[in-house]
Amino acid sequence: MAGRSRPPHISNRLLTESLRLIAKGIKARFILEIDRENLKRVGKISAVAEVAHYQPIPVFMYGADDKSVAVCLAEGPIIRPSQTAQLVTNYRPTVQVMRQFFDILWRESTPFVTREAILLGHRPPSPSSRITRGRKEAYTQTEITMNSAKDSIRIYIPTRFGPVRILKALSGPLLRAHRRGVKIRAICKSSDENAREVKTLVKFAEVRHTDNPIGFSMGIVDDSDAAIYHTDPDSSELDSHTDYTIRMTSKEDIRHLGNLFEALWQESMPIED
Question: Distance between CA atoms of 145 and 65, rounded to whole angstroms?
Answer without folding.
Answer: 35
